Amino acid sequence: MIAEKISELELIEGWYEDDPTMRVRVNFPFFLGNGTRSTAVVYFEVDPGCRLGTHTDSAEEILLILEGTAEVSLGDERGRLSAGEMALVPAMVPHGMRNVGNETVRVVGFFSSNVVVSTFDQPMMPFGQRVLGTPPIVEEDQVPTGDAGA
Questions:
Q1: 136 preceded by cis ω (within 30°)?
Q2: Domain spanning 21-136 has what CATH number?
Q3: Considering 34, 69, 80, 93, which has the largest number of Cβ atoms within 10 A of its Cβ?
Q4: Whole-angstrom Cα distance, residue 131 to residue 119?
Q5: Is 42 exposed, middle or buried (0-12, 13-18, 19+ CB in 10 A)?
C-alpha cells in the first residue's frame, strides 16, 4: 500500500517572477514515480489573496476543496468552490484558481493518468519553465548525468 499523510507532505513553493499574487505550495504524493499504475494525485495550498496561475494539464482532473473558498476559472467559465465541493477539469482546458476567502485554500486533485504534464501561461519559478512534469523537479534535486566512475 502506498500511503501519505497530507500534514507531513513536503511542499514545493511555486510562483511567477512578475506577479506577486501567483504563489502556490504543491506536492505530488502519488504518480508513476512512486508506483501508481493509472492515476496521479496533487495536493496544493493557496494563501488568501494569492492564486494558482492559468495552466492546462495533459490529463483529466477532479478537484476536491478540503478547506477554504476559491474562484475557479475553467476555459471561459468562472465559479466558486468551497470546502467539500468538487469540480471536473477536462484535459487540456485552461484553468486556474484564486483564493477569495480568509483562510488557506487546500486542494486535492485526482488525475486520470499517472503522468501529468502541466503548461502554465508564464514560467513557473523556481523551475524557470512553463511546462512541468509530474512531479516538477527543482534543479538542485536533479541527479547528475554522466559516468559516476569517470
A1: no
A2: 2.60.120.10
A3: 69
A4: 4
A5: buried
- Candidates 96, 129, 130, 135; CA nearest to 116 is 135
Q: Global pTM?
A: 0.89
Buried b (16+ CB within 10 A) or exposed e, 84-115: eeebebeeeebbbbbbbbeeebbbbbbbebbe
Task: Parse the chain into domains and list their residue ranges.
Answer: 21-136
pLDDT in tens, 86-132: 999 999 999 999 999 999 999 999 999 999 999 999 999 999 999 99
DSSP 8-state secondary structure symbol assigned to residue 48 = T
Q: What Rg do the C-alpha atoms of the chain give, in angstroms?
A: 16
Q: What is the mean pLDDT of residues 22-49?
A: 96
